[in-house]
Structures are given as C-alpha cells and as structure tokens.
User: Which sequence fits this backbone?
C-alpha cells in the first residue's frame, strides 16, 4: 500500500506571496492532519480534515487554511507569506475508525520564504 | 504551555546497549501516547504506541513504559543499533482532540558502533 505523498517536496517563495501544498493520504484513510515543524517551535498541529470537514484547528492565524476533497486528498494554503512561515509542512493520515489508531506521516514539503 | 516535554535534547549510546528515551506530560486528559522516529528531510515514522489503560507495550526491540501517576513515559530500545540514530519524538493525544497530536521537542539519539 502506498504511503502518504506530498507535493511539492521543496518550494521557495517570497514574502507576500501565497502557496498551496498538496497531500494524498494512504488509500482508505479518511482523516488528514497538517503539522508545521520549525527548529524553534517543534511540531505544531495546524488542522485536521475528515470527510471534507475541518474537525480540529490549532493556534495558527487565518492566513493558514485547508480543505479536503471527496477522495480524501487535502490541500493547505498559506496566504501573505511571512519569513516565519519557513518550515517543513507535514501531512499525516489515519484510518479514523471507531478506536484511535496511529497517524502516518508523509515526507513533508520544505517551504522557504525569502 | 509545553504539555509534552522531552528534557534531553540528545543521547549517545554504544551499539548493543540499551537506549532509554524519556518523556513527561502535564495534561491528564491524554489517553494515548506514541513514539515517532525522524530522519532529516523525512517525515516522522511511527514506532510504537500505548494506551493510557496499559503500563507497557512491547514490539521487538522497542518497549514503551507508561507511569500515569508520574505522568511519565519512556521508550527502551534493546539492543541499540547504529541505524537507530535519529530524532525521537514523543506525542500524546486526548480523547476529545480527534487526530490532533501534541509533540515533545524531540531527542537526538546517536548509536555509536
């Protein structure tokens, strides 16, 4: 079974631009979560989508948004980029059955804001 | 408010010996704990997990211990191998948070041949 895939793997943008990142979960997984990893803040939860609905949201400004499609693929958008948005953005998927089960992460998208 | 803490940023052990990575948490609502391993430029890889109703879970060379009264968990790797060298993250989830995981800062494990 293929793992979580993320595109693109690397991205360079300038301040003020906007960016869209894509995530394809493991087949059959309906929950997709996004995390930001930075050296200073570690791994921080951004949001979770399940059945095309945002189910949970972390403490990030409204410039960070996402969506999920009917095939469970998810996109994350950051508008008006700031230098501090430079980070590794990780997507994770899980089956989301009746009991809790583990999340599996993709390789991440490395975003650099100049 | 750092709800999950890994107080040791790094750990160095000899090949074949035991590696013990520690994690403390403050939120008593956490009911599920996980350990992930991460290599540079890759996403975290799931290692092992434990529910709050258990105090030990074992999978091959990896064992996780949970002490709820102390709000402490540890990951034991026996025997340690050079390929285990990576950053290890402890993560926790509460029943009301869906998929949301709260991560510790990570511990860099180096296993020397």
Assistant:
């Amino acid at each position: 079974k293929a793992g979580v895939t993320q595109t693109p793997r690397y991205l360079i943008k300038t301040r003020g631009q906007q960016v869209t990142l894509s995530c394809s979960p493991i087949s059959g997984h309906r929950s997709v979560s996004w995390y930001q990893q930075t050296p200073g803040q570690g791994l921080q939860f951004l949001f979770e989508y399940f059945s095309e609905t945002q189910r949970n949201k972390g403490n990030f400004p409204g410039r960070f948004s996402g969506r999920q499609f009917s095939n469970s693929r998810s996109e994350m958008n950051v508008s008006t980029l700031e230098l501090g948005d430079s980070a590794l953005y990780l997507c994770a998927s899980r089956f989301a059955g009746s009991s809790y089960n583990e999340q599996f992460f993709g390789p991440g998208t490395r975003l650099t804001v100049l | 408010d750092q709800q999950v803490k890994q107080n040791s940023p790094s750990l160095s052990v000899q090949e074949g010996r035991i590696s013990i990575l520690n994690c403390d948490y403050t939120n008593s609502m956490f009911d599920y704990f996980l350990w992930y391993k991460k290599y540079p430029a890759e996403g975290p890889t799931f290692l092992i997990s434990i529910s709050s109703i258990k105090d030990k879970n074992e999978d091959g060379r990896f064992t996780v211990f949970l002490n709820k009264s102390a709000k402490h968990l540890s990951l034991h790797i026996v025997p340690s191998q050079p390929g285990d060298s990576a950053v290890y993250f402890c993560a926790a989830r509460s029943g009301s948070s869906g998929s949301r995981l709260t991560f510790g800062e990570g511990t860099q494990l180096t296993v020397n041949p």
